Amino acid sequence: MIYTITLNPSLDYYLDLPKLKLGTLNRATDSHVVAAGKGINVSVMLNILGVKSTILGFFGGFTGDYLLSQLGRYLNIHLRPTMVKGTSRINVKLIHDQETELNAAGPEINGSELNNLLNQLNTITPKDIVVISGSSTANDKTGLIEQIVKYIIQRKIDFVLDVSGQELKKLIKYKPLIIKPNLSEFQFLADTDATDIKKLFTQAKKVAEITQNRVLLSLGENGAIFVDKTKAYHVEAPSVKVKHTVGAGDALLAGYMSRFEKTSDHKASLAFAMALAVKKVEGADITNLNELEALANTIKIKSL
Questions:
Q1: Would you call 23 helix, strand, or coil by DSSP?
Q2: Most CB atoms closer than 10 Å: which of 51, 60, 72, 288?
Q3: DSSP 208-259
């Protein structure tokens, strides 16, 4: 079973605007609301792909209730929420000639609520994988993500990290199964300003040597770099019209994990992962698996 942990879930409110003008009234041409948070995004993608997962995280208030009601509709998602006194956040995503995000801080978490979440981890076994994604809680002064990681590794459970560069730098010593940074997160982790593929590969190889596991570096329009102990690839991203980029990295991770679980084939898994991420940024139908497979067959992958 795959478990995803989202410590600061959100209700994402998307507004499509013909143009954004500051200091005056802006009227949206379209709007929609999505249950979100990086771990939640991974679980939703896995659900579409027919892979079961369990969502863990903090949920509270009317927004927390709404999030759980929406997530409860998915057949392949099991919910094990930790309920809190605060109110889960609402993030606003403005889609105009650019992409503007307004993200709230989220609720503060007290000690008993933290212990309740840690107790949820007791049933996870070494046969499972835990995906820890996104930001920590608003008042985290004790290193909550690191506490969770220590709790997991004591039980010899594999885990995946998709967190900030600062968190990755602290946690890389615990040797996660996979890390999935974006460019800025990886630059912070590796103390580099590199942007070209060859230099990034060199740095990613060094990181993979530390973790003894996999690095999946998402690079937006420049695709992705994958490195493990024995293999390294550059996955090219086809040129498409981008509607929005929110959740693309989560789709990449979910696509890779879902396919690798079935095939143990890195290249096939990376091609499928890129196809899913591309469909996500296009705002296209990602439930048509035949179209996803057809797109995956066109993805170019080069050995590094």
A1: coil
A2: 60
A3: HHHHTSEEEEE-GGG-EEEE-SS-EEEEPPPP---S--TTHHHHHHHHHHHH
Residue 191 Ramachandran class (φ > 0 left, ψ -120 to 50 alpha, else beta): left
Task: Please write the tens of the pLDDT for every residue from 148-158.
Answer: 999 999 999 99
Q: Which residues does the annotation mark as catalytic?
A: 250
Give Cα 115 distance to the centre of its chain: 24
Give per-residue pLDDT as tens, 41-67: 999 999 999 999 999 999 999 999 999
pLDDT score for 142: 72
- Domains of the chain in sequence order: 1-21+28-163 (3.40.1190.20), 182-304 (3.40.1190.20)
Please report the DSSP string for 51-62 in residue order.
--EEEEEEE-HH
Three-state secondary structure call for residue 3: strand
pTM for the whole thing?
0.92
